[in-house]
Amino acid sequence: MKRREFITVASSIPVVIAACSPKAAKQVASPPRADGFQRVGTVADLDKNGQILAEQVAGSNKVLVVRDPMNKSKIMAVKPTCTHAGCTVLWQQNQNAFVCPCHDSKFASDGKVQQGPADEPLATYVAKLEGDSILVKVG
Ligand code: FES
Question: Phi/psi class of residue 47: alpha, beta or left (left: φ > 0; alpha: ψ in -120 to 50)?
Fold first, then answer.
C-alpha cells in the first residue's frame, strides 16, 4: 500500500468506528403519574436511534428502552447498569443484545446474561406505548 493510500484509509477509520457505535436518544423522564408510569420519550425518539436512555427516572435513576427484537410492536425496558462493575450498557442492534463497553458482557432484551463476566441479569421494568408516548413503571 502506498503512503497516500494508507493515509486515506487511516483517516477514515474514526468515521467507520463512530458509525458502528450505538447511540441512545437521551431523555429526562417526566414525574411519575398517579398510576406510577413515567413518560420517558416518544416512539419517534425510539425509532430514530433504536433506543432511549432515560435519566432521572424515579426508583432507578436510568432506564434504557428498546423495541422487543422478537415482536417489534412491543418495547422492553431495563436498568442499563451492568451487573459486573456498573458501566452503562447500550443496545447493539447487530448483536440483538445489550452490550457493556467495559468488559463486553452481553444481555438479552429481557435482561438475561448471554456472555460474562457479568453473572447477574439486568433489572427489567414494565414498559408500554400510549399513543406516541413511551411509558415505564419502576418497581
Ligand atoms: S462492567 Fe460490564 S462487563 Fe464489566
Answer: alpha
